[in-house]
Amino acid sequence: MQPALPRRNESEICGQALRKKIVRNLALREAATLPARGFKRAAVCLILTEDDTGAASLVLTLRAKRLNTHSGQYALPGGRIDQGEAAIDAALRETREEIGLKLTPDAILGRLDDYPTRSGYLITPIVAWAADTAGMTPNATEVEAIYRVNLADLDRHGSPEFITIAESDRPVIRYPLLGTLIHAPTAAVLYQFMEVAVHGRATRVAHLEQPVWAWR
Fold it and tell me: What's the mean pLDDT in 37-44?
């Protein structure tokens, strides 16, 4: 008799049930939009897919070391919104340019809150579904490597971490992932995805702080 396989919790299984739940949870809560107020507008794409074992995962990239800003940092696919461009279109365009993944508008599941960064960007996170990411290829001018991070790794006890710094009265958020610490804005967006899209909680993240070295 074969031993029973350990049962995965719902957030670990990538399938139609998880997709429907995320669409429902995102639709139940209006995403917070913030005024630009001199910020440069940007969009990122949270791409829900599966890893080689079928576990639900999100796509992360390691930014190329040659970039002028935020080089060598872990990030979600994304970038600056062009003049007259919608956030969804920018997220899909940047995903195509950075990792070669061509998603259509019907892949969009919803969006999360705008997040203002210390470096002067207002980021709009767009959530998308990708059934097949086998063809992802990093654009060497922008991306060093591509990773799939299991939702279970984002849902571990004690993760994310919240710490205090002398320079701010706001908590700094960070995720222990991929053998390092991933900070806001990426950590804040990942956290809200898990809280709102996966768990259906009304959690805001615009107040969560970045480390001082990211304030530029």
Answer: 94
